[in-house]
Design goal:
Elements lengths: L2 E3 H11 L8 H7 L5 E10 L3 E8 L8 E8 L3 H8 L7 H8 L4
Antiparallel strand pairs: 1-2, 2-3, 3-4
Helix pairs in contact: 1-3
Length: 103
């Protein structure tokens, strides 16, 4: 399971612009909780050009996660970021620790 911060998810969405699975960046910025943690729940190579991904995204003022699909091209900076995203334990404590500095 990969996790992303809101800035990470926006960067991934930038890479997905114009793809089959994408979202308008202005809409996304308005919807996302700035302090939200977003969890990847599905990924698969889609042809030889992109990674199809599905995320549980934390939207403002909505408790339940929303589903967000993004196609991230293999040759994009977004795919490099995708590969560098932290992986967390499958429990809430692991996700919390991976996304919050405890300094």
């Amino acid at each position: 399971m990969k996790i992303a911060t809101t800035p990470d998810l926006i960067e991934l969405a930038k890479s997905a612009e114009g793809r089959n699975r994408c979202i308008d960046l202005n809409v996304l910025r308005d919807l996302l909780d700035r302090e939200g943690t977003h969890v990847l729940f599905f990924q698969m190579p889609h042809g030889s050009i992109e990674m199809r991904t599905a995320w549980y995204a934390k939207f403002k003022d909505i408790e339940a996660p929303a589903t967000l699909w993004l196609d991230i091209p293999f040759d994009s900076s977004g795919f490099q970021l995708f590969n560098e995203l932290p992986t967390a334990a499958e429990d809430a404590n692991g996700v919390f620790k991976a996304t919050h500095n405890e300094n």
